[in-house]
Amino acid sequence: MAVTQTFVMVKPDGTKRGIVGDIMSRFEHRGFKLIHAKQLVMSSAMAEQHYSHLSAKPFFQELVDYITSGPVFAMVWEAENAVQLSRSMIGPTNPAEASPGTIRGDYGTSVEANVIHGSDCPENAEREISVFFGQ
After folding, report:
1. Domain Nucleoside diphosphate kinase-like, which positions (predicted)?
2. What CATH number should be reported for the domain holding residue 105?
3. 77-115: per-residue pLDDT in tens?
4. Which residues are annotated as a binding site?
5. Is 117 a residue of the active site?
6. Can you give the pLDDT at residue 101?
7. In this structure, what DSSP letter does residue 93 have?
8. Most buried pick, 81, 109, 115, 123, via CB within 10 A?
9. Catalytic position from the list 36, 50, 53, 117
């Protein structure tokens, strides 16, 4: 299996709660290698670009408003099968459906405040890495 990269972002609810280090530790313990990381407050334009694939959804503006409401911590992680492995660690979008031991199962409080974003496919990982870190 090839080593690939994925994009992971701790959302404003996670940064406000001070759990960035805990989340990073989970990835490190799972064997991921941290490639890039930075904390920032996303502009509306950046958020709209990040969530462009959801622009037709009725909740799109709520997503943009939420993700720009405070600092996020953006990261690029590398591992074998990085996207699939990180998604299994993160858990389902709804924390009520996420198993204990997953990041959302342990830290998420609602669909809106689910602590973390992770790329859902290699193509989106590449696009999201580009949005946050350039080529």
Report:
1. 3-135
2. 3.30.70.141
3. 999 999 999 999 999 999 999 999 999 999 999 998 999
4. 11, 59, 87, 93, 104, 114
5. yes
6. 97
7. S
8. 115
9. 117
